Amino acid sequence: MRSGWLAVASFMALAAGTAIAQDAGGAHPDRWPRLAAAAPGAAIEARIDMLIAAMSLEQKVGQIVQGDIGSTTPEDVATYHLGSILNGGSSSPGGDEFGPASVWVAAADAYYDASMRPNGKLPRIPVMWGSDAVHGHNNIVGATLFPHNIGLGAARNPALMEKIGQVTAIEMRVTGLDWTFAPTIAVARDDRWGRTYESFGEDPAIATSYAAALVHGIQGRRGDKDWLKGPHIIATAKHFLADGGTADGRDRGDATIAEAELIRLHAPAYVAALEADVQSVMASFSGWNGVKMHGNASLLTGVLKQRWGFDGLVVGDWDGHAKVPGCTPTDCPASIAAGLDLYMGPASWKGLYASTLAAAQSGTLPMARLDDAVRRILRVKLRAGLFEAGKPSTREYAGRYELLGAPGHRAVARQAVQESLVLLKNNGVLPLKAGAHILVAGDGADNVAKQSGGWTLTWQGTGTKPEHFPGATSIFAGVRDAVKAGGGTAELSINGRFTTRPDAAIVVFGEDPYAEFQGDRADLYFDDTRGSLDIMRRLKAAGIPVVAVFLSGRPLWVNRHINAADAFVAAWLPGSEGGGVADALFGKADFKGKLPFSWPADAKGVPLNVGDADYKSLYPFGYGLKLADRSPVPPLSEDPGIIVEQPLTGPIFARGRPDGTRLLQIDGANDSPQAISGAADNGAIAVRPVDRDAQEDAREISWSGKSRGTLIVSNPRAADLSAAGPLALALDLRVDQAPTAPAMLEIRCGPGCTARLDIADRLAAIAGKGWQSVSIPLSCLTGTKLDHITAPFALSSSAPLRLTLSSIALTPTKETSCR
Ligand code: BGC
Ligand code: BGC
């Protein structure tokens, strides 16, 4: 091992000048905890020796490159000897995210067959397929969807995690898959991070107590006959390291913290996962003190592999190597030198293959390091029995579709839902009586997509329809079943208007689905875009007891909603078994959940974590009432505090989404803008996420011409731009289809206040010319009340028009021309 490390170090010295500078800010492995590593088995090592001796250089290189099935065919696997494939959150066999499970099995067979095709004397090495089964096998229609990790963290029940791991592994096996990119054992320290819901909690103790249970559930136990085989698959601990510790909670950002904090907060769950023999670890997109994890030799090699003796494989994250200095998506030997064993190169795999082959041929990539990476990958495959397992469809659980969402599996998920609920307030209305007449309101009431969040059939969890969730139970359906059994009745009314006066109302509301950076926020103010506060206040005014069920991927400032409700339940993102919510509301089981994250007293979004020196929360970490706790609470302050104000200038739309707390809305001719997150179409205007430089970092907007349609970026709170000096709206866009009628750029400044400018000529002038930057001084939009901007950008057209927007910003300008 020691000599391997020296080889890496000297390779870095020779080959990658940039990597040396990075290593300078590296970790000190001797300061990290020790771990008793299990020795690799001699029989397997001997087989690996034979394989490596017989493999061609091309085969070795292929083993360390992984493509996404959206850009990789079985033929590619055969031609380039690719050792593994993945399906990212947006890719599915045949491109159909809602296709039947049988298509997955057939695809698994096709890739496997390609990898096993005879090729002269070369050894045949089975491909493996990785997938993000992060809350159940969430890419498959009809699979059991567990609560996202944040809810599981509230349950504080490691034994239940093992069952969840088992169920997830079996459902993966049904579809012929071998390997999940889970569990995420991130410790999220800033709830503005869009992946907070993928974290078990802000205190490392929860992730640490869960890591082993989940790994055992997914992989089985080392020494058992069915370790990594039969009902089990390969697990991944991700994202190494400190993905949840980035400054300002920025996704893919930098954890600017001391090594001691890294060890105290972010390392313990990995130690636990490694002790449970997790076979793969995913490198994080993020960096530590300016050094990207994909290039951090001191952590990937020094700590993980040497200090901790990890002998499994280190997989990269989605082109994460590309951000290592000197690297591109298609070329990055520095990352392998630092300790990555397997590039995740979704669409870049072909270039990576070529550059890695060249680096190996020229010696820039030392054979010893390449062989070690290959050895680790083969070791995992051999341990998992892939060489003997045969075609995916012939394996024990494959094709047993009745196991997807099987009643026993759903029962585990329902228990998890029930145990994940955190009761924050109860003035005595709970438990509800099952013999009563219950109104169920709010846009989350009968909405399995909303209760399931991101990483649900699609990457962002958007764009699904109710029929994509066969067998699932919405929260309303669970309530309906509960009252039916108890002799009562339930009425579903999203807007809270009722025909028969209810004995009590349940209002289900919260965040819309998001994933990764698209969920990053500037503060923790809950933007109530669907009017749930009004619904609650109206019901309360009518004397109807209100139970609020809040769906969210993190704690948010909802003091007004808590005040408007008689009972308030943080339900997180419960997944497909909404019946678990009714179990607790009607007292079939008591509340058990404890806050896995401190609930903030204001909306500022300043990091708040148990153990902080000046710890002031609304509800502390670990808080959670039982049904018997009925202390009346005084009303909470309705002052959100100084919210991180949107900077006056700068981006208002970037990375495919509105910046900060702004909303992206579309409107038809009827002047009732709808907030949208993923793809949307209201007949007049259609929006869909598209790629410019990164995944879904732009939006294509098409006006159908059927009626007037408007795209709006709105401020949740009116902004005062009057002191900002002369500004321009700077757009980065591509006009795909020129306008044939006025295209009105608008700035909105409150009721009855809209300033307009026809920019059809400008758009027509750049149509078909690719990406262009356009700057329009605000002074050209006369009549704007700059001190009360409710929407800094809107574009409306009644005629067909198509353009793709990658960014909109408010920038200082000296320009005055309006042409
Ligand atoms: C995410 C990972 C995920 C991978 C493959 C990345 O963008 O960060 O968590 O495993 O994509 O979908
Ligand atoms: C993929 C995800 C991935 C993301 C990264 C998406 O298109 O489907 O798996 O995490 O891109 O940007």
Q: In terms of per-residue confidence, which ranges show pLDDT below 50 for 5 or more consecutive residues?
A: 1-24
> Roughly what is the average pLDDT, rounded to an integer?
93
Beta-strand percent range? 15-25%
> Treating each run of at least 4 consecutive H or I residues as one helix, how many helices?
23
- Please give the alpha-carbon distance between the first and last residues: 67 Å
Could you tell me which ligands this complex binds, including any ions or cofactors? beta-D-glucopyranose
Largest sheet: 8 strands, antiparallel
Count the E strands: 31
Structural class: alpha/beta
Helix content: 25-40%
The shape is globular
What would you report as the Rg, rounded to the nearest angstrom? 27 Å
Report on this model:
With 819 residues, the chain is of the alpha/beta class. It contains 23 helices and 31 strands. The strands form 6 sheets. Strands 18, 19, 22, 23, 24, 26, 29 and 31 form an 8-stranded antiparallel β-sheet that branches. The protein has a 6-stranded mixed β-sheet with strand order 12-17-16-15-13-14, sandwiched between helices. Helix 6 (101-116) links the parallel strand 2 (84-87) and strand 3. Helix 4 packs across helix 14 (349-362) and helix 8 (158-174) crosses helix 9. The chain is globular and about 75 Å long.
